[in-house]
Specification:
Number of helices: 10
Distance between the termini: 53 Å
Strand order of the largest sheet: 2-1-3-6-7
Shape: elongated
Strand content: 5-15%
Largest sheet: 5 strands, parallel
Order of helices and strands: EHEHEEEHEHEHHHHHH
Radius of gyration: 19 Å
């Protein structure tokens, strides 16, 4: 059902087809919606400074970095802005980290159109959208009295290499220590960063510190 509510959206994704698809869905929901589209961090900040945006739909990864780093800047410009993370990455691994950073919702790109519409309208009317999957994670975290640790999703070998990276080992040193090829270390490192949705060693160290991981 269409709404006549006047509302401004900013769709930020480096893939044109995603931006256009979301814009069409938004227009189906809100007849008088204004929808801006951008593909990088610089444009996100420019549009927010110049326009009274109500909702930002934000991908996780951009050529200029990970979105978790820009959320604080976005909130400084528009404190009341509602942020929906829209990503193909597993929400059971990444959603809570983005909620903690200031996001108001997390939605998987593989969601059906009806779910996307429901998520967007819920975010607009209630100020947040939390899927059943994430609700269960939050409840389990509360009942078990522990933080949900994304590091647990790494394989044994990935954790082993991650710990060495945190200790300050370089790729060649890890290669020698574990008796594997240097290129193999690079592959593992890339996979670790992708799974944890981080961009650099500093963020890896931060995660290990936050979750009290032994190194």
């Amino acid at each position: 059902m269409k709404s006549n509510t006047k509302i401004s959206f900013l769709v930020a994704d480096d893939h044109t087809v995603v931006r256009q698809g979301l814009s069409m869905i938004i227009k189906e929901l809100y007849t008088y919606a204004t929808v801006f589209q951008v593909e990088n961090f610089v444009s996100i900040l420019e549009v927010l400074k110049q326009n009274p945006i109500d909702v930002l739909i934000l991908d996780i990864n951009f050529p200029d970095g990970n979105s978790i780093t820009i959320i604080p800047e976005v909130k400084k410009i528009r404190p009341e802005l509602k942020i929906m993370i829209f990503s193909a990455f597993d929400e059971t691994v990444h959603a809570l980290r983005f909620f903690n950073a200031g996001a108001n919702g997390y939605l998987n790109k593989l969601s059906e159109e009806d779910e996307i519409k429901f998520a967007i309208s819920t975010l607009v009317t209630q100020g947040k959208y939390i899927s059943d999957v994430t609700k269960e994670k939050i409840l389990n975290s509360y009942l078990l009295g522990k933080k949900i640790n994304p590091i647990e999703h790494l394989s044994g070998r990935e954790i082993e290499i991650a710990r060495l990276l945190v200790k300050g080992y370089g790729n060649l040193e890890i290669s020698n220590a574990l008796d594997i090829q240097k290129t193999t270390v690079s592959t593992y490192k890339k996979r670790i960063f992708e799974k944890l949705q981080i961009d650099n060693l500093a963020e890896l160290i931060e995660l290990f510190t936050f979750f009290n991981e032994k190194v």
